[in-house]
Structures are given as C-alpha cells and as structure tokens.
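Annex B. Sample input.
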Amino acid sequence: MKKLNLLCVLFIGLLVISCASDDDTQTITEGDPQNSNGDPQNVVVQKLLSFSSSLTDSNEIEFMTQLTYTNDNLTKITENYINIGENVWNYSYTDNELTAVNSMPITYANGVLVVEYEFERDEYFILNNQVLSQINSFRNDPSEAFQFSFKVEYNYTDNNITEKRYLDENDVLTGSTTYEYDTKNNILKGLDNLNKWIFPYADLLGGANNNITSRKEFDENGTLLRDFSYQYEYDSNDFPTKRIRTFTSNGTSTVKTNLYTYE
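Annex B, continued. Sample output.
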C-alpha cells in the first residue's frame, strides 16, 4: 500500500514548497518552467490543502485527503478512506531538504532521486533537474542484493507527460499510457519539483504544468484497456476546484467527482 501510493503508478505522486502567501496567492517569475519559446513565464503559486473523491451519481464520498504545512514545508498528508481507514504520510526535513517519508530515506543528487523501502528501491532519473525521464525499480529479500525489476520511461511536450512506457527486467514493453492536457494551472503547481515527482496521486493529477483531459492505458500490443476523460471548473487563478472524471472499460463507464481547495 505504501509503495503503491508513493508511486501511484508507482510516482504521485510529497516536499519542499517554494512559495509564500499574500492574499492566498503569489505571482513569481522563475527560470523553470519555461514557455514553448524557452522564455521564463509567470507562475501563480497556490498550495493544495485538500481534495476529495466521490461517486457523481450518489455524491457518496470515497476518500478525503488533507495536506499540512509547517514553515512552507509539506509535513503531513492524511488520507481518510471512508469505511476503510486512515493512511498518514509524515515528511522529515534537514535544513529544509526532504530526507524521508514515513521513515523511508530519500536522497537527491546528480539528477537521481532515490527512495528506499524495506525490500525495494526506486531510482528516479531527472532531466535537467526539471522533468522525470525514467524510473528504475529494484526488489530484494533479506538474503539477496537488490535485483532490477522494471522501469518506466517518460516522454514530454511543454513539460507535460505525453506518454509513459512500462518495460520489464528484459527491457520488453509491458504497457503504456498516453495523456492530453488543458492550458490551465496544474493542481500540484505550487509544489517543488522534488515533491511533485513522488507525490501520491501525481500520476493521476498530472505532475505537470497543466491538467489531464485524457488518459488512455494500453497493453503491450497497443490494445486500449482503459479510457479516462476529465472536465474541470477553475478558480480566478485558473487552478481546478472541481474535476469530473469519466472512466470507461469494457464498455462500462463510471463517473467520479474530485473537489480541490487551496491556501
């Protein structure tokens, strides 16, 4: 459960926050991200405080997630799954640098982010300190060294993930996912890149500049397995406050509603 949530996919996807609050928002100019011409662009920073998921037809809430910040650092995520229980993520920092999530060590150096579990190890390869290009996952048991298990490769357009490819230990394709986006601010845009890469649900929320409008999952032969479409309502700063997700598989569709609040 811990690994699945932390990766989401694996990825979701925890965090050094580089923002301050002035009437709930602040406009800053920074070198990353850049627009399509390679020029810095203004970024409106809003820190995500909570989000929920419910079945649209019944309005029955499935889960609520709350984020807690201390001195602009994300220090806790509380996931409350209705009728199931609670899952808590605690973040540890040293000199404002994220060093562990729920006692799982995290290190970042030379473009490689490493997350270690009891019997697993994930290596996130970061391109130009900006976008995730590949994840290598290793597993072991108490009597063996870590053995390569699988990897995920990423393709981007304008800092948005457009395709993910899953490959096994023999470098054989086992599946892929494609994405399309709107032009508004991504839900996680207020988070530092390091935390965005490993944020729970990052794979579902986008972990990119903009918000997913289409997500399609394929098997190794390119056959469509699952089809997701998304519609949004936005606040005055173009951050999503509501998302309607339609999931279609084997001819059956399910609609869910997500609500988001910000500081």
